[in-house]
Amino acid sequence: MASEESKTFSSKIKEEIIKCCGENIQCMYAELLGFILSCSENCLNTNTNTIKLDIENDELAKKYFTFLKKTFNINVELMHGNMTNRKKFVNTIVLKEARFILSTLSSNKLADICCKRAYLRGAFLAVGSVSDPQKGYHLEFVSSNSEYAHHIQSVMAEINLDAKVVMRKNNYVVYLKDGSQIVDLLNIIGAHIALMDFENIRIVKEVRNNINRLVNCEIANLSKTVSAAVKQIEDITYIQDTKGLSYLPPNLEILAKNRLLYKEASLKELGQQLDPPIGKSGINHRFKKIADIAMQIREERERGGF
What we know:
Layout: H1 9-17, H2 25-38, H3 40-43, E1 44-45, E2 50-55, H4 58-72, E3 76-82, E4 89-96, H5 98-106, H6 113-127, E5 128-130, E6 139-143, H7 146-158, E7 164-168, E8 171-176, H8 179-189, H9 192-242, H10 250-261, H11 267-272, H12 280-302
Antiparallel strand pairs: 1-2, 2-4, 3-4, 5-6, 6-8, 7-8
């Protein structure tokens, strides 16, 4: 048994929803249909009219074995062993009379929302996965059969989930990338504990992103403030070196001297130092006048009129 730390997010979801039971026998038909159709390329043998389901999880194998045996009253074999070319130990359910079973399961047209939920739960148990939400938001169903993949997409659309389908190598991938839609699907298939874990991670990430945005905004504002202060000091120093600060009108001369004394002060702080105090917009307006005067002096010197 894997430790709690080593389990993937997907395996935790599957362990949780295995315990879900349909509201009625039709829901169980729908869940089995979703499971069998999603992996039917590998489990259905039309020549021998058998279905072979390889199921790694013991609880799920027992659940489906018991249901099939009691419901269909047919011979169902449950075997244990290693999968071909794989080291994993699996349970294999072998069903004879495959056409009869599929026909019976397919009689459920998924008209009710409870059956749609069950169908998607079965499909997820067979071929579904969710990436670690700490790393990103991605839920997918992978099927080698185009028809079944698009059927999963269609069922999801009926419950307002906007899934996309793409080809990946030889498989069809039905996927969601929107965090809120993934949460909705987890709720639909009955993964309520996993849903809370997912939401908690989403909230933490959102808070971190908001903090980062605020910090970046503060840094950007600080950078603008520093750049403006540097330009103001350059203009004032230029006027001082060429004309002297007394060249400025008295209200601008006082502000210019204060800026040289308090190079790191904000516009608000500079405004509070005046008598009477003035606001940031007033201080900013005076600095623009100082900048205009510095520009006029520069232009005069360029024309040789100094």
